[in-house]
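Exercise 7 asks you to align residues with tokens for two separate proteins.
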Amino acid sequence: MNQCLLEVEVLEAPKIRYTQDNQTPIAEMAVRLEGLRPEDPAGELKVVGFGSLAQDLQNRVSVGQRLVVEGRLRMNTVARADGVKEKKVEFTLARIHPLGASPATPQVAAAAPVATVANKPPAAAAKASPSVQPTSWNTGPLVDLPEDEIPF
């Protein structure tokens, strides 16, 4: 089964187009995802959404926004102008999950006064004030192995 969850940053605003036959909307955007290790370079891939997801992408996603995208990975073979065949990865979107606020819409602070939040129990205070820090994922390897050893 090919199902992926990726935390990404939007590089290009979603561009929408329509199919010729039944005018189904298709949105495409470029995203960047961080490498697994700090020394690994960031990767880029194209995210494609169809139908109502395409409309959601166009209406709710902006450049610089961090998202968790859920969907399937696919490899496309594309012939370049010089005749060389090139493989490119494409991510077919199933769901989008925004992380925090987008740069265009700043996050609004809690409406409750600080004194009110401070008098509540810690669990209630945590629910009343939204977390400003984005979710952090531990992307390190599960087992530290030398680089030349293959774990079979």
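Second protein for Exercise 7:
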Amino acid sequence: MFIQTEQTPNPATLKFLPGRAVMGDAGTASFASAEEAQRSPLAERLFEVEGVTGVFFGNDFISVSKAEAQEWYLLKPAVLGVIMEHFVAGKELLREAQADGNAVEETDSEVVSTIKELLDTRVRPAVAQDGGDIIFRGFEDGVVLLHMQGACAGCPSSTATLKMGIENMLRHYVPEVTEVRAVN
């Protein structure tokens, strides 16, 4: 098994590509702590590597974030070993599925449905390239609430992406949108 790595715009996050589906079409999964990682055997093992502060599973990649004091040249071999061991052993990725916050639901208004569709078709594929994801959390009084995950969370360029990229695009296609805000 050969696992490639890619840098992301966030220097604290590295993207690992195992050459096979990770989440596939099942969405994404994000873990910000060892406690949250209890849903995933792989995430649990990755948090056992000293210095790992976040794990994110995308379609065909895993983004791992590190503590500021840690160096990738020390962490990378251990992370690669955990990922390789997991996939070679054929272990399950998640113990339980999680709902996709971006899925269009029957109860969504036309505006919310349009926002979710734009996020899915135009935004999420672009941020996945950088090892992250953006999840819709709500629409209130013209304000779209989004949760940044993976490499996007804590990235120095995430504010510019949110305001100049996503906000401008949503305001163009959905006149009801006045602002986009990041939420936890």
